User: Fold this.
Amino acid sequence: MVKGENERQDGMRLDKWLWVARFFKTRALAREAVDGGKVDVNGVRAKPSREVCVGQEIRMTTPRGQMTIVVQGIGTQRGSATVASALYFETEESLAARAALHELHRLSHVAAPEGRPSSQARKMLRQIKEG
Assistant:
């Protein structure tokens, strides 16, 4: 049965929804992420053709980190970032985990040495390591 133009759309393919919601730049990248096991729907590994419906929880690993989101809407086409952000909301636990990871990365850059240690600093490090 072919859906008519006036029929309500209940779901959308997972790879297409991830692209419409602007998590990936292309639909092919979204499909690769799903095929690679980086996307779970309701705790189950999904296929790109799986239908996404409102209320489902999606856990994914993207270049921006691991996220857990809940689907709030199904878009018909890819639009602006403000339109795309209305299609989902990120859970509180996911936001807290990403904020903690961001803080850890920030602190690691602050604590990192600025350059190569001098000869004197290397001797001190060697003494500390050897005890």
In short: The first strand starts at residue 12 and ends at 13. The chain has two domains: 8-90, 92-131.
